[in-house]
Amino acid sequence: MLKGYEELRKIDVRPFCEERDGMLYLNWAKCIALLHENGAEKVFWEPIPNEETGNSLRMTKEVFTDKSGNTNRCYETRIRVCIDDKEYIMQSPVMNGSNPVKDNSMSQQRVWNSMCRSFVKCVAINTGLGFDLWLKEESRPFANGVPQEDAKPTPAQIKTLKDVCSKYKINADYWINANGKTWETLTANEVGQMLRTINDKYGD
């Protein structure tokens, strides 16, 4: 019998994680192994096909086009997770790190990664295993938990941030608003953190 939520949440899964883009990720196969090691007898997940297309990818009908002519939609996957006698449904976006996947970079690997990440997140939500990894990720502003300072950014810092975001086609307005900020309320430390995050991702 699988251990209870609080007991599973206390398990330190960090030694089994891989680091990508500054975040720790628990491999789906190791997640299954840990569930079995802690009492589960049956664990598996499977894609729920798109009713319209029959494949694993779901998408909105509306197409978005950026200034370079690249198109994308809101792409998602949906899976069924079975742990012993319990069944859960999880739907998640198909992302490239923190960025939406454009049509010209969509691949089976990205769809697979979305489903794997969805499985691990579903396990965390419903069993507690690895939950604190997600708690840390969801609560950190601008991909980092560094305490924020109140100093205002200089015009040069703002221009640099806008130029870098434009270079890599990053929707800076969306990024800022998603973290509860505006261009007017950004601090110098937050601007610096955003630039470091971009540098970590693109090596600029």
Describe the structure.
There is one protein chain. With 204 residues, this protein is of the alpha+beta class. 39% of the residues lie in helices and 20% in strands. It has seven helices and ten strands. The chain has helices spanning 5-9, 28-37, 108-127, 131-139, 155-167, 172-178, 188-202; strands spanning 17-20, 23-26, 43-47, 58-59, 64-65, 71-72, 75-83, 86-93, 95-96, 99-100. Strands 3, 4, 7 and 8 form a four-stranded antiparallel beta sheet that branches. Strands 1-2 form a two-stranded antiparallel sheet. It has a two-stranded antiparallel ribbon with strand order 5-6. Helix 5 (155-167) packs parallel to helix 7. The longest helix is centred in the middle third of the chain and has 20 residues, at 108-127. It is globular. The model is unreliable at 143-149 (pLDDT under 50).
Task: Summarize this structure as a short list of keywords or feature phrases.
204 residues, alpha+beta, 7 helices
The helix fraction, in percent, is: 25-40%
Shape: globular
State the end-to-end CA separation.
50 Å
The profile of the biggest β sheet is: 4 strands, antiparallel
Low-confidence stretches: 143-149
For the secondary structure, the number of strands is: 10
| Average pLDDT number | 86
Going by helix content, strand content and strand pairing, the class is alpha+beta
Percent strand: 15-25%
What is the overall number of helices? 7
| Estimated radius of gyration | 19 Å
N-to-C SSE series? HEEHEEEEEEEEHHHHH
